[in-house]
Structure formats: C-alpha cells, structure tokens
Write a structure and sequence with these properties.
It is built from 24 helices and 23 strands. By secondary structure, it is an alpha+beta fold. The chain has three domains: 302 residues, no CATH class; 138 residues, no CATH class; 126 residues, Sandwich (Jelly Rolls). Strands 12, 13, 15, 18, 19 and 23 form a six-stranded antiparallel beta sheet that branches. A five-stranded antiparallel beta sheet has the order 11-14-20-16-17, with no helix packed on it. Strands 7-8-10-9 form a four-stranded mixed beta sheet. Strand 9 and strand 10 form a beta hairpin. Helix 19 packs across helix 20. It is elongated, with a radius of gyration of 30 Å. The N and C termini lie far apart (130 Å).
C-alpha cells in the first residue's frame, strides 16, 4: 500500500504564499526595493550616528571641514530667512564690512533648510551624508539599468559606486564632495534622452544637467566638461544623423534651456567673485594644483586608512603630498569585473567602449600637470592644462577629485560583466542560489578593500564647551575672538557660532584672502596667535613691524570684542600654550571660565563705558601689498614682506613733520625702495645687499591730521621665488622685508 505524501502544513503554505507575494512585489517595484536596501545599508555603515544625529558627526575627527560645512548649512538658512546674500556675510571676519563665502552645494544647502526646522545644523549635516550614500547607490542602479536588464547587475553597480574608497573617505569629511548622487542621474537621463527623445526625456535630462553644478561647483568642470565632450564627440562620429533631425535639436534646446534656468541664476555669484578672493584663488591654485593631482599608484593601492590593508599601503601614502586627497583606489573586484566585460563578446559594443574611454580620459586628466608614480614625478603631463588652463577653469585646483568619473564608468562596465556571467552560469534555481551567494561574497570583499577607517564608519560626539551657551544668553552683542586663530581647527570656531550666534573675529572660508587675514593681523598683539611658529616665542608678543601704542584690552574694547576664548589643542606644544595663556592672563586678568576637561579658558572684556578719546600717539596698521601669509622673526624683530607696493596706514593725532625710520632687506636682488606719502613721492633709497638688513632714514614727512597712507614701492618690481629657487612652488612675488618702523620728530 502506497503512502500518500504528507500535506504541507497550513502555516508553511501561508508563509510560502506570503514570500511569493513579497518577491513578486519587490520585482514589480524594484526601484523602491533597491532604494530601501540602500537606505538600510547607509544606516548600517554609519551606525550608530542615526541615534545621535544632533550630537555626533560622521567622520574620524569631530572638527575641521565637517564642522565648517555644518556652519555653511546654518548660514545659508540664516541668509534666506533674513534676506541676505548667501555669498557675503558679516558673521565671520567681523572687523570687515563683509567677507565672501561660497555655497558649496546648493542642493545640500536648500535641502538643509527644512531639515533644520526639525534638527540641529549638525543633524542636518548627518542626514545629508546619509542621503548621499543611499542616493548615490540608487542613481547608479538607474544608470546601469540603461545598459543591462539584469537587476542584480544594476545593484552591484550601485554598490561599487557608493561604497567606493573615493566616496567613503569624502563621506568622512566633505559633504559637498560626497554629494555624488546626481552624477549617474545626469548620465542616465542624457542617455535616455538620446535613445528615446521626447518632452519628458528632455525635461529630465535638463534637470540632470542642472543638478550637476548644484551638487558641487567642481563637478561642472570635472564631470560636465569631459563627459559632455566625449558624449557629443562619440555621437557625432557614430550617429551624425541624429543631429540632423529638427525635433531632436528642438528637444535638446529645451533640455539645455531647463538646465540654464536651474543653474544660471544660482551660479551668477561665482562670476562676480570679490577681487581679493579671486587673487587668493589664483595663488592657491598655483601652489596646490600639482599637489592635489592623482598619483598613479593610488589607483591600485587601498587607502592608508583601510582597516585591512592600510598598514601595508600607509608607508607609501605617507610619501604623497596631501595624502588625504589621494583617494582614487579603483578596487581589484571592480577591475576584475571590468576585464571580464571586455572579454565578453556580447558587450564589445559602443556603450562599453564609451565607458572605457571615459574612465581612461578621466584618469589621464586626474594626473594634473605632472604624472607621479609613488613619490616620483615621471614626466610633465600636458593634457590637464590643455583642457583646464583657461580663465573659466584655471582656479579648479584639484584634478584628483575627478576620480569619481572613472569609478562611475567602471561600475557600469562591472554591471555588464555580471550580466554576462549571470546568463552563462545562473541556468537553474540551484545555480542562481550559488551565483547570488558568490555575488554577496564579492560585494563583501569589495567593501573590505574600499572601507575607510572601520566598519561601521567612525562617528564622533562633537564637544561644545559650555561657555558658548553662556555667550548665547548674554544680551550684549559684542564680538567673539577664538584663539589661536587658524590652527589647528578653525572650522570648529565657526561651528560654535551656530550655538552662540554672535559675530566672530576670525573665520575659515574656502578662500581666506589677504584682506581677511589683515583684518585680524591689524588687531594689536594678535600675530603670535595666528602663526604657530611664533606662539611659543615671548618676544613675539607686544610687537609688530611698528609700535602698537595701545594696550591689548583697550584694542579689544575699541573693536567691541567682548569675549576672548583660548583653546588648548593636542596639536599645540604645551609650552607654547603656557606662553599664550600667560600673556592673556597678564593683559585680561582672571578668566570668567576655565574648564580643564574642555581645555577651554575664556575672558569677558567689559565694554568701554566711556567714549573713545582721540589718541595722543601715532597709530599704525597695514593696508594692501603685503604677503600676509609670509612672516619672519629675525634678530628679535618681526619682519613682514612687501610684494611690490606695501601700504602703511598712519593715524596722526595732529598735522606735523615726522621722520620715518625702518630696517629693510631686498630679497633676491638689489632694489630701489621708493617712499610715497598720500600718493606723492617723498624719497628713494637704494638697497644693494640682497638678503641683508639695512637701516633706512627717509626725508621728513609732512603728515596730515587723521589718516595718512605711506607706500613702500619697489621700483624694479618684485621677483617670484621659483626664479631663484627652482624647486619652489611658491608663486608669490617678493621685493623686500620690512622691520622696526618708527616715526621720530
């Protein structure tokens, strides 16, 4: 008698039915499913920051650029709500009428406004980082879907892109540069528009193009230019007839019009940059473009912060300049899949070759003006300058940041390889199960080789000294001076402003111009708090190249500075800190706040109740023409460097005749120092000994009561250092150094 098979239990039947329904739903709604999966992966890799959004920050250190970019979200919201220009602010460098700042990412800034209705600026920053991770994977999934129907292959492309070393390192410190989600979105919509032109496709293509510079202005140059040029060139060669159809051209014009409508009004401020900031941008680009170029070895070596391989590659990365930026590792899993795609007959087509060429072009451009392999410059590399050495693009100074383009291109090719492997090996249910297991193992291996610092990514509590809440509660609207000024973490000082909401004397914008620095340096006694090399030298306190003729407390009161806060950072030599602390105690008395745990000491400077009296002494300050980022301490005297025309501003208590004395040295060759007073030439002195100081006494000056402008002009001009020191990258122009300025009757 045959035994009948046992009937499945109702519970198993119900469970199987529900699993089948869930599977069918996930297939029908694959995009929503993938978005949910990337959301969970984003939360997992940043865990547990989601539980501490308003107090922690994603990244290895709770200071620096992440806190500065948190401030930019706060400032953009303040500017919109008060009707101010987001590109100019009086909140930082408050001794000036305004300072220029930049909107790094309009997308992040705009989305950050409603987020700050519910969360703190820190919470908004963290949520935008989370969005960048999950949306980058999702939009890469959409792009790959234009070239393969295999959903698993598309998911793998998204995973390889968003969990690349390039992205993960920037997630740990650069909100704007981690906003990579619209790069694949734009490429996807451009391909869709080309293949299936229509009004909807044109509108979405225009939106995709418009979102590129709104993600980060660098992407306009480093994605828009190479991708757009290669796409147009490729289609002109392979499908010229497409461009002969009036409907296609009309729709293309519509797409470009929408892109212009989105971007032009928001990007116009980038065409009206303040002259001092333009000059600083040119100076920085001249110094750092080569340093911020990719190293060929970095494409094949896991990052030095990788928890598995960083110990092996760290010594190599230590030989790189700006090693934190050299983050372009492609990954051996990705490269293996790319090679597989190239060997697949099915994918030897125009699309595959386009992505291959785009990746190679982006890698070539990322090398910048010189090709480096390990620590050695191999050859001059002309391609970057051929493309970008023009006024509109010349201040884009970080070719290595083009690395995302090669990573995106190779991720598409990896998806094509996976599709080929799937169609070849996943022939039945058991084979599919094994295939999915192998893909999961590959993705885990890929994450291991790309991981930065740890898994989950590190996140840190952001300490906020209690003094800033006390300052916020103070009804007095005086300025706040955080010291030391620019070292080691000025971004933190701007972040603290989101707590206390008072104007601050310093700042840390993307381009800190000479005018901004001079506004601080002209505050008496502040020089050793700005330049770390002077912090521990007691002789540097109380002097500049001219006498101050005012004590420190009175100078603070004159500028309406009511709080001075000294930070003790581990990067500072304790002895240097003690010198700074001793000076402030001697000048300002007993602090109102002293927290060893927070390593913060603060003084409150009472507002001067009496109106300022006219000074009986001559008061000096510097105007334009000085190299503010170059300062020497020579023969127990401070020395500042003139480029070609250095202005000395003299406030005279009364009209009268005075003799100007100073010590000067020509830097690289004999020079003639011409002295001008209020635009008129007074005297000319020859300085014949390069590198040697010389005491100079000029003819008497007839000063007006009030403000006078003394100019020190180099008749022979100035000389760049690299003309005399060939290995120098310093683009600044030097004439002479000035010390010990005095006026005598």
């Amino acid at each position: 008698m045959k035994t009948l098979p046992a009937s499945p239990s109702p519970v198993l039947v119900t469970l199987n039915s529900r699993l089948t329904t869930l599977k069918e739903w996930s297939i029908r709604h694959d995009r929503l499913t993938v978005l949910l999966v990337f959301t969970m992966l984003s939360l997992a890799i940043t865990w547990p920051v989601v539980l501490h959004l308003n107090e922690w920050i994603i990244g290895p250190v709770p200071e620096g650029d992440p806190l500065y970019q948190t401030w930019t979200l706060w400032w953009y919201k303040q500017a919109l709500e008060t009707g101010q220009d987001p590109f100019h602010t009086h909140n930082i460098f408050a001794l000036l009428p305004s300072a220029q700042v930049f909107v790094h990412s309009y997308f992040d800034s705009i989305v950050g406004v409603p987020l700050q209705w519910l969360f703190s600026p820190l919470g908004a920053y963290n949520l935008l980082i989370e969005l960048s991770i999950l949306l980058s994977g999702f939009t890469m999934y959409l792009l790959a879907g234009e070239f393969t129907r295999n959903k698993l292959a598309c998911f793998v492309a998204g995973f390889l892109y968003t969990f690349s070393t390039y992205h993960l390192v920037r997630v740990g410190g650069f909100l704007n540069l981690s906003t990579l989600q619209f790069i694949p979105f734009c490429a996807w919509r451009v391909f869709v528009f080309y293949r299936r032109p229509g009004y909807r496709s044109a509108i979405l293509a225009g939106l995709g193009i418009g979102l590129i510079p709104l993600s980060e202005i660098y992407f306009l140059a480093y994605f828009g230019l190479p991708f757009g040029a290669l796409f147009l060139l490729g289609k002109l060669i392979t499908d010229f007839k497409w461009f002969l159809k009036p409907r296609n051209l009309g729709l293309a014009a519509l797409a470009l019009g929408i892109a212009a409508l989105i971007t032009v009004p928001l990007l116009l401020p980038f065409l009206r940059i303040d002259p001092d900031v333009q000059e600083e941008a040119r100076r920085v680009a001249g110094i750092t473009t080569e340093q911020l170029s990719a190293n060929l070895a970095a494409y094949f070596l896991p990052h030095f912060s990788n928890p598995f391989f960083g110990g092996l590659t760290g010594p190599i990365y230590n030989t790189f300049e700006y090693q934190g930026e050299k983050t372009v590792y492609l990954g051996y899993i990705t490269l293996g899949l790319v090679v597989t795609a190239l060997f697949s007959r099915k994918h030897r087509n125009r699309a595959t070759y386009f992505w291959l060429v785009l990746s190679l072009v982006s890698i070539g451009l990322s090398f910048g003006p010189k090709l480096y392999i390990l620590e050695n410059p191999v050859i001059n590399w002309p391609f970057y300058n051929l493309v970008y050495d023009y006024p509109l693009f010349s201040t884009f100074r970080a070719p290595v940041r083009m690395g995302f383009l090669s990573i995106m291109s190779l991720a598409v090719m990896a998806s094509l390889a996976l599709e080929s492997l799937y169609s070849k090996y996943a022939l039945n249910r058991r084979a599919k199960f094994i295939f999915y297991g192998c893909v999961t193992a590959l993705l885990l291996a890929s994450l291991a080789e790309h991981l930065a610092w740890s898994f989950p990514l590190p996140s840190q509590a952001v300490p906020i000294p209690a003094i800033y809440s006390r300052i916020a509660a103070d009804p007095e609207n005086g300025l706040v001076l955080d010291l030391p000024d620019r070292q080691p973490s000025p971004g933190s000082y701007m972040f603290y402003q989101t707590i206390h909401h008072k104007l601050i004397v310093g700042g840390y914008p993307p381009r800190t111009s000479d005018r901004m620095i001079t506004s601080m340096e002209n505050l008496p006694y502040l020089v050793p708090f700005i330049y770390p090399q002077l912090a521990g030298n007691p002789a540097a306190y109380g002097q500049d190249i001219y006498p101050y003729n005012i004590d420190f407390k009175a100078a603070l009161q004159e500028k309406k500075i009511t709080y001075v806060i000294l930070h003790q950072h581990e990067a500072f030599n304790p002895a240097d800190f003690e010198v700074m602390l001793g000076f402030l105690r001697a000048q300002l008395g007993v602090p109102v706040y002293d927290s060893p745990a927070e390593k913060v000491i603060a003084w409150h400077v009472a507002s001067n109740p009496a109106p300022a009296q006219p000074s009986a002494s001559y008061r000096f300050s510097r105007g334009t023409g000085w190299l503010t980022h170059r300062i020497n301490f020579d023969n127990s005297s401070l020395e500042r460097i003139v480029s070609q025309d250095g202005q000395l501003l003299v406030q005279a208590p009364a009209a009268g005749s005075q003799v100007l004395q100073l010590v000067a040295r020509p830097y690289f060759k004999p020079l003639s120092l011409e002295l001008r007073l209020n635009g008129q030439v007074v005297d000319t002195v020859r300085l014949n000994s390069p590198g040697k100081v010389q005491t100079v006494t000029f003819k008497p000056l007839t000063l007006n009561q009030g403000r006078n402008i003394i100019e020190m002009h180099s008749v022979e001009g100035c000389q760049p250092r690299y003309l005399y020191v060939p290995e120098s990258r310093d683009p600044d122009c030097y004439s002479f150094g000035i010390q010990q300025i005095r006026l005598v009757e």
